[in-house]
Design goal:
2% strand, single chain, 417 residues, transmembrane, 2 strands, two-stranded antiparallel ribbon, 17 helices, mainly alpha
């Protein structure tokens, strides 16, 4: 009896530790002393969790060598970094985040990972609501003359992005018969309200993405004429995309409240790429571009010159692909794009073979991650975003499951022979 109680207690402590790490993976605003403490604790917790599951983790790591190679390139960029101190400091956090994502894939199924993220979402929604109403001086800030909610996060875009992401989690719970659908629906509505209060246009797009992507899951579940239905859906999607592109200027200016240069993003992207082409193959080193003098010309020639940039919180190009390029050059960017396409291919195949709702969530997340990185902060290989941890977990989870499916198919074909 004592052994069962001890085992149960350790299991609950493990789950609490994982939720703690996922929650603080985002840019939560806390006093500096608390931030330092949570950072130290996070390293200790990850080491402890990995030490218990190291054999399983070692096996899972072999299922996706490309991602391991990409992380190694990030680590070895200390040898050509333009800002060695910043690279060394952030590389440690990169390894921690990547290993933690690997641990999640080794320890929990995709459905269990969704449950863990649901708890993180509940805690986030509760605290953002409390802080926003009770301490508006902390939970809100003025951006472009408009009061916007940021809750417990550093910026309205961070809260908006995370609330938009939670839509994919709660939507899956609404569709899953094993979950409390009404509770998930209420959480979805509250996250939408917080998203609206944040005035984050990007967050709203991220919120709508899983809702509009839902018909894809209906198509996947159809056993008969699935290819024809999918072809029809792709055709409709292409027509809608063409209409959006034709009317892009009107949509951007009138509905998203941005100019055709996306609030100065395009000049920023062009200037950043030009600087990146000065070191095209290996880049400036992981997390080294915006913390060094290399970014001076970009800041001087774009709207960044009007910003009060905190050296302890470096800026970024508002595009994950471009930021990855200036950090790790064509080598890192091409390897990541190859890996991203590989993971998408793997997840889509698993989705059609299993038709599991959790696999559909993995598919949705990959789309959300690309969407966020197209015009917002970088989450690719980022040490201050839960998105990289989830991406790593999905990459390894899908690799393990795909390998198992192929093994079963091989055994079945041999038995039939």
């Amino acid at each position: 009896m004592k052994n069962k109680l001890l085992t149960s207690l350790l299991l609950k402590l493990e789950i609490a530790s994982v939720i703690f790490l996922l929650f603080f993976a985002e840019t939560v605003v806390v006093p500096d002393a608390v931030r330092t403490l949570t950072n130290i604790l996070s390293y200790g917790i990850v080491i402890l969790l990995v030490s218990v599951q190291w054999k399983r983790i070692a096996y899972v790591a072999t299922t996706d060598k490309t991602l391991i190679l990409l992380t190694i390139i990030g680590v070895f960029s200390v040898f050509w970094s333009y800002s060695l101190g910043d690279t060394v400091e952030q590389v440690r956090a990169l390894v921690r985040s990547t290993i933690f994502g690997l641990y999640l894939a080794s320890r929990y199924t995709p459905r269990e990972q969704i449950n863990l993220l649901s708890w993180v979402g509940i805690i986030s929604i509760f605290l953002c609501t409390i802080v926003g109403f009770a301490v508006p001086s902390v939970g809100t800030h003025v951006v472009n003359g408009v009061v916007s909610w940021r809750g417990i996060y550093a910026h309205k875009q961070h809260m908006g992005r995370f609330m938009g992401f939670l839509a994919s989690i709660f939507l899956i719970n609404i569709l899953d018969k094993r979950c409390n659908r009404w509770f998930a629906f209420i959480l979805l509505l509250v996250s939408l309200i917080l998203l609206v209060l944040s005035n984050s246009k990007t967050g709203l797009i991220v919120f709508l993405y899983p809702i509009f992507a839902f018909p894809i899951y209906i198509i996947v579940k159809q056993r008969k004429n699935r290819f024809f239905i999918l072809l029809l859906a792709v055709l409709i999607f292409t027509i809608i995309s063409a209409l959006i592109l034709v009317n892009l200027e009107s949509i951007v200016v009138n509905y998203l409240g941005k100019d055709i240069e996306f609030n100065g993003r395009i000049p920023l992207w062009v200037s950043t790429i030009q600087e990146g082409l000065k070191r095209p193959f290996l880049g400036y080193g992981y997390n080294a571009f915006w913390t060094s003098d290399a970014s001076y010309d970009v800041i001087r020639n774009t709207w960044l010159r009007y910003e009060d940039i905190d050296p302890d919180s470096p800026f970024q190009a508002h595009n994950g692909f471009i930021d990855l390029f200036v950090q790790l050059g064509f080598l890192g960017l091409s390897l990541f794009v190859f890996h991203l396409l590989t993971v998408i291919y793997r997840v889509v195949n698993i989705l059609f073979m299993t038709r599991k709702i959790e696999t559909f969530w993995m598919f949705m997340f990959l789309g959300i991650n690309v969407l966020v990185n197209t015009s917002e902060v970088i989450t690719f290989m980022s040490t201050n975003s839960v998105f990289w941890i989830i991406y790593v977990s999905i990459a390894f989870s899908s690799a393990v499951e795909y390998k198992q499916i192929k093994r079963v198919q091989l055994i079945s074909s041999l038995n039939q022979a």
